[in-house]
Amino acid sequence: MLLMINHQTSYGYDFPVQGRIQYLRMTPRTRHHQQVLDWQVSAGGDLVHQTDGFGNVLSCLTLNQPHQTLLIQAQGRIRIDAQADYVRDEQLNPLLFQAPSELTHADDALWDFAHTALKRCDRAGLVALAGAILEHMPYTPQSTAVGDSASQTFALGRGVCQDHTPVKLACARARGLPARYVSGYLYTDSDEHLASHAWAEVYLEGKWYCFDVSNQLFSPVQHVQVAVGRDYLDAAPSRGMRQGGGEETMQATVQVRCESAASVG
């Protein structure tokens, strides 16, 4: 399947920002289940590209001139293997993703849930766990913030993909399984998920398996992997620091289409 992706994030401020450093993880890499045909990122200034400790492409934007708006764009074409059942990644030791992180620490309630809902530490058991999480936390937009922890969102009992994923990670790690946060894009006919997406991957018998709790999808045939990490803080599409500007507003739009159904300019 050939996908065309267009991702735009715009920032606005009450008054001019005097300077900023922005770190972007918005560039996918070719993996055995996905092939990057072409990709470009623009952000109104020069970008310096490097690789972070998790193998993600990290683009650094520095702006020293005053600005009251900022537009970040990422777009390109990705070929997805429709037969892929798992993700192969031999660059990183899976033990990096076994210990709890700042946002995936399980409190007593979440620890008890993990040991009750995950009866078998295999793929079938993890699929059942994903169903139990979604039942406990129905998909509810605009109910949480990206900095909320797994224990906080579990206690709230609702959320979106960025909430379901750390709960999934916390449960898997509580049972001793390496699990990592994945940010990227989802191809779907639904209008419900028109933004960057997040899901979990759990390491079983030498392979990383996809567990998309929000959509109950368990193979990476509709997913474009962009970045991985221990939690959201490691794989966020955009994080940064700024001087001035006052209140910030942000709006993100994403289009993911089959190229055969879209015109390519």
Classify the helix fraction into a percent range. 10-25%
Number of domains: 2
DSSP strand content: 35-45%
CATH topology of the largest domain: C8orf32 fold
Secondary-structure class: alpha+beta
Shape: globular
* CATH hierarchy class name of the largest domain: Alpha Beta
| Element-by-element helix/strand order | EEEEEHHHHEEEEHEE
List the uncertain runs: 261-265
Number of helices: 5
Mean pLDDT: 92
The CATH level-2 architecture of the largest domain is identified as: Roll
The tally of beta strands, per DSSP, is 11
How far is it from the N-terminal to the C-terminal residue, by CA?
19 Å
Q: What can be said about the biggest beta sheet?
A: 7 strands, antiparallel
Radius of gyration over C-alpha positions, nearest whole angstrom: 18 Å
Question: How does this structure look, described?
Answer:
The structure is a single chain. The chain has 265 residues and is an alpha+beta fold. It folds into two domains: 2-81 and 238-261, Sandwich (Immunoglobulin-like), CATH 2.60.40; 94-235, C8orf32 fold, CATH 3.10.620. The protein is built from five helices and eleven strands. It has helices at 108-117, 123-136, 150-156, 161-174, 232-235; strands at residues 2-24, 34-42, 47-51, 57-63, 67-80, 179-186, 197-204, 207-211, 223-229, 238-244, 248-258. Strands 1, 2, 3, 4, 5, 10 and 11 form a seven-stranded antiparallel sheet that branches. The chain is globular and about 55 Å long.
